[in-house]
From TrEMBL:
<protein>
    <submittedName>
        <fullName>Uncharacterized protein</fullName>
    </submittedName>
</protein>
<feature type="region of interest" description="Disordered">
    <location>
        <begin position="680"/>
        <end position="709"/>
    </location>
</feature>
<dbReference type="InterPro" id="IPR016024">
    <property type="entry name" value="ARM-type_fold"/>
</dbReference>
<feature type="compositionally biased region" description="Acidic residues">
    <location>
        <begin position="688"/>
        <end position="701"/>
    </location>
</feature>
Amino acid sequence: MELSDALQPCQLLLLSSYGVYARFRDSLGESPSDRVDAINDLLIDRITTQALPATLYAIWLPIAIRHNPQLLQAALQNKTSACIRGTAIKAISRLFHGPKWKTEGWDTLGGVDGLASIFEAASVSEVRALAKAISRCRFSQDDGRRSDCVEALLQRLSQGSARPLFVALSPLYALCSGPFVRDVVSNLPDTLAVKPLLKRVAPLHPDLLRQMAVGRVPAPWHVRLSILETCQTALVGSATPYSSVRESVPAGLMPGMAFVLDLCHVLAEDSALRRDFHELDVYIRHVLRGAARHHIPFDRIIPFFTSIVQYPSCIFLRSSLESAVARELLRCWSLVTAGKSSPDISFFMKGIAHPDHPSHPRPEHRLGLESALTDLLRRHQDRRLLSKRRDSSFSATQDLLLDVSRPARRRFLEYLVGLSDGLCYDPIYEKTPFTFDPQANPPRPRERQLVPVWHYDVLRMLPAADAQVIFERMLVIHGCKGFVPTANGLDHSQQCRLKAQWEAEGTGVFLSLKKHAERQRDATERSSASRAALQVAFDTYDLDLCREAVSWTRRFIRDPVVFPDIMSKAILRGDNAYLSCVDMPSSRLPEDMATLRATVKSAHEVLSALLETILLALCEPVDHRSFTKDISSFLRGLVAARIRGMSRYRRAGIGSEADIVDALLMPLVSILIAWERTSDSPEGFSTGDEEEPSTDKEDEAATNQENNGIIYSEKEGWTDDSGFLHYLELPTECPPAVLRFFDEYARRRNDLHRAQRIKIFPDVADMDEGWPQGLQFQCLLPSRPWFAFALEHSDIAPYMAGRIRGVLEASPSGVFVPQPDHDEIVDDDHVDSFPVALCALLDMHHTKRAKTDAVRALWDTYQSRKDAYGKYFPVLRDFLVDLLEEELLFEAASLVRPPRLAQATSYLPSTNPTALQAWDPASSVHEEARAAVDELSNLKERRLATNLLYYQLQGELDSENHISSYEAPFAHLKNRHWAWPKLRFERALAGSHIVRKMSFSAREATIVSALLYLELVMHDLHAEETPTDAQSRESSPLAAPFPDADTVRYPAIYLKEDFVEVAWDDIGKAMERCIDVLRASMQAVPTKMVSTLMDKVLDALEVLERPHGVFKVVLKTTFALIQALVLSDSPGLAVGPVLRVIGSFPSESAYHRRMKLLSLCRRLPPDSVGTFLDSFSAFVCKKLVEQQRRDPGKQEAPRVTPKTNAPDYVKITTVKMLAQLLAQADFLPLDTTVRILGDTFHSTHHIDIRTEIVKAALNLFDRVHGSAAGLDRLFAFIKSIAHEIAQEPSEMDSAGDISTWTTALPNVSSVKERPELQILIEAQAKLPATLHAKYVQEILLPFVETSENVHNVWMGAFLAPLGLSRAKLGIPSFGPFDPYLIDTILFKWSTYLPARYLLDEHNKWALTHAHHWQAYATIGNTLATTNPEYRQTNAGQHWEEFVTRLHETDPISTLFPLLREDALLAPHVADGITRKTVVFEFACRTLQLARDPAQYFPKTGKMRVTLDPLISALKQLRAFRITKEDIGAESRRARYIVTDEALRSVVDYVKSLRRMTDHKPLVLPTPFELDVLVLPSPVYIPDAEREDRLTQFVEAVVGVVSSCVGSLALVLEFAALESVVDEVIAEDIVRVVELLNASRAQPQLGSLERGLIVKLAQRLLNRLSDDEVLLCQELRPLVDGWRKDEDESVSRIGWGVCVD
């Protein structure tokens, strides 16, 4: 066969994928090398003419490159088909994944030179895909060649490529060498591209990223954080060796463990990292999980625990005992101590819990774990364990005990108490850890004061014996017997419950509480007491006592408050352990089968007593619902508990699963049936006011129970048809033997309801087989999983399995039985559900293949009965398909009903392809579909044949897998005969599956039918009736064969009227489906036909007006087709329609974003995308200039141009879209991008457009990473637009010529209307770190200077009409237009600013109002006098905003943010701002306040003499010096020294002012105030230990008091000294009091000084609680001395302190 004939479309497109592959292989013949080029050329030619879809090349290329590898490079450089290039990239991906990537891939493509040329010609999307394909060589062993090749390629591309392709090439950077990667990563900007790049780098360079994460290798801050956030697996799990340089890290650890310890060290030192990184717990869990996974011996794990607890508590984000290391340490210790892990187990513990696991902790590790535990409890005191907050401490204790196994909890509790400051810790315990002795008598004072009563919830978590020991300890502490005093958390009833749980005096306690409840007169108290009595009885697990307690509740039946309360909160509560016979203490747990049966029998006697009690209550005129509403949950919980307990008895070995079910569950059947019989009384009615003879209520209840439970009640039943066990979940590992209970219970329930229904409706007994006489089967089991479980174990549950199988396998004669005469029977939903039965069949299989096989077997059964089903067969089939698709079983659904898609065989091969013929795509399914529609019409309109099958198909499962009723069972059958699968909403997954599985024949027919239909709609858009064959013929784009008569892909055809009639009912929905199908198959769609269709759609849209009915449909179609073209094999064809839409439909700018222009630009070749964006920008700039010229005052011209003419405007949204597109322009050379942005920027003054352009320019820095020329070009552009922005008073309007300002003052933008300036100031995150200093020097500082100069000119024009000028007023400068600009730049760029900016520029601005307030007041007064309405003008509003900012400016407080900036310790520029510079400036400004002690008050407009600003500044400086902020040690030391020096220099200068004779300030602080401010810190002094620090502080305090004893200031300003003393932290209060008291013995002190010292000590003691004072025994002699003092004031203070 000739090649041309073998590759004819009419033959290839009718084959399967394998058939096409075989045709290609056969075409190669015996000499493939000779024919491969000819076949390739012919195939590419026909793909180019679109005679064949480009998707066929994916089958051909793998065959071709085996014989001619050079075809791969040719395919990559193909200029006509994006699909061919994509296929070549996929082939490259396969080649580079293998070990021969260098010879078969790299060298074949021409090495560095060949790949560089390919990358240069490729679109950006192809560059990215090709880079990912090449990066697959990372899976091969690297011998050095890989990094050399990739680095050479990247260097070549960075030097030769005009496009910024850094992000697109990022997959290749991970393949480079360590130094290369370090240079790249160290200079990454703060963008979204950072994290994906790091994820790729991490597996190949974990050690480098580890070094960067801990700061050993320099990296930007955002890079360090990104490494820690995104590279956890590589940092911790990599086996690459890691060596720590710190001695505190033990040798021999896993690399991940060593890294985590280094990270902890860095966190302890770096407060900024602690502020921004909060994932340490994740790292700890990860490293421990890795240790268990790699079977690391515990000998190598325990050094990790002992090391990590040595770090300070600040590294833990939450409470230290909630940290991951604390919890895992406790679990390991528990495993060693008790031999078992805690109930709350982690993945790490799951791995090591088994004794045979290599990482399992052994007994020899116990000492090491206890040592680590000791360090943990002592070094990391949990803030919740505070003596003042008992509730929180007990809550914390409960949380900790959950991590410890039950036998070890008391031991841990002793550790916790003995080693926690907030509990019983005493310094003596440091010498002998773990010496807490619960037997010590008398108890230690700290124990007596801090833990007098333990919370009930804590004691309940302990074993009974341990809880008793602690309880007896409480009795010793309180000196009581029997019960401790009632306290919060342990009241009398809770103590009784504990005793009952310990099997101690349970009966006696119950009788006592019962009598107490009976004596209560108040209903609330009576209810509480009776509940307590019942709880005590239940806690004993003595079932005889429980039965007695339940019977005792009958005395409260007539109490409307107590009885419902007892039932809902005590008896029917969720915890029914006393009846489960499972959750019992070990001492009461049955040990053999006979004991178990006896226990169950006793429990059921309690249930019977409970039922009798409820029956008695139902006879009373009370709200029955108040105590019956919990019955279902009570019984459901009881059954669940017994199912759960089967495993416990099975492990105990008392019998087999079947024996346990017989003893534990089967007796429940009769109990549940009795309860349900009582609930579902069919004859329940109310006797109303009828008088009944008085009878004994117990006899009445017994009679009711004998009479099938028929009682007389006006209330509703306790349950519905679903039963008591509805919603009961299937346990994960449920024994199949349990099904015996459920099967028997289902059978008994069905019999019960059958009898009740027959009693109401006698005709039920005569119903045909198939109609349930009892309950429908879906109500007989709790939930959906149980049905599958029963069907899977049909031998154990024969009744339920038979009911389910009966529905699925019913014969047609059985399901066609008619509806019974009584509608009530059917309306009551008593019909078995087919959907539930089918779901049970599916759920019993666990794989899709098994489910599909089960459906195949079932469907074979239905097909064998096809004739018997008749017209109902397609209905049944479609319904079955619908259910299978809802279960996402698309393969099974296709098996039942193959997709109803047209086939190309219906028009190919054509005997006369040039003759125009009618074609019906759905001809093969019309007949069958119409029958189904007719049957549907019969069912819905005439209600004929409403038989059993009709009702069985109504049953449905809701989203929670429970039974509900489907209101419209056949609604899903509508429109299932369309030729195009639905790809949206509820059928999206099914439709996508169909599209993926389409054959070539079906795909071609579907594509051409969609194209023909869309062409027909556009041609007959205004037709009110279905188009005829003539109209369809006229509109067909296939009047001649496509693409030509020699290679026929589509013959001359048009849509037949029969098909159009069906699809014309809903044009909008039909067009949506057509578009979705085209988009899903766009690589195979002939783009020439789509382009022609696109032109017709746009023509139709130009004619339509917006209110037209189909305008919205056509508009959506327009943009959907553009999207499809963007994704097609020829994306360049979308350029024309895009430009036409932008130019012809500017009012639809909201839809313009739907064209996905970014995807289009990244899919276009470089030359095409440049031409497209030049045209786009030229149109935009032209329209903007025209709009600006027509009306400069308006931002947008009105839309008055008729749509039939070319619009003369462009929407701002469209222009912004262009700028946002260019912001991501890695598809253009940078020069082109900058040129377009500049042209657009200068074409308009619209603030939104210019803002987007500034954003776009800054975002481009992400793209030009690594290109010095690109960075310089982009920096120059930003510099130019920043200079232009600085020259304009307003960002919204052009200011015009400065010479005209005296006649027409230009508008000034307010601070909130300067988004361009705001973006420029906050550009630091967008710029590379290497440009920060240059940006400040060349852009920001000149911006301030330019804006200041222009503002001075503007202010001159503003003041001239007032007769004022800047020279006359004496104001050197008014600063920039934005009054916040100078401050903002200082705070944002402090580390890059020169010191002169702070000392000169900012100093001048901050003090301008203080120096020239009179001049500013003069301007304000003159304005108010000359033009009282000046505030209504733009100039007046600017003045008000400007002067308001001046009033708000505090020259001192603006410096404090800089003082806190640790980065100022090492500025990034020479002669930059350091902390010393800031402190010096602070001192200068403070001195200015001291010389001029005045403050401006805006309300009065005057300056007032006051010392408040000066004193406040000095107090802030002192507070900053002794900051409690979480900073590093070196930073804290440097801050203290510099700040203390500045504080003392200011104080000395202020003191020197007092000695001045000329120009002396009006007021000055007193010497006492100044001396107090420079007192040493009681919190921190460099190089001073705790004792030295406190001694220095006390000596200085005493010295200040003694030196000022003769001054009145000591009395008037004593509060200042008290505020300084308040700085003492809580841990040092007692020691400072002792030192203060010792200082009173100094002979030079008088009685006044000694009294004031005692007053300071009293102030400190007042901060302690009474309990804390009592615990400090060293305070007793001190206070005794005060009490005996001769001074009455001191004595009174002493008696006010409680030390005894």
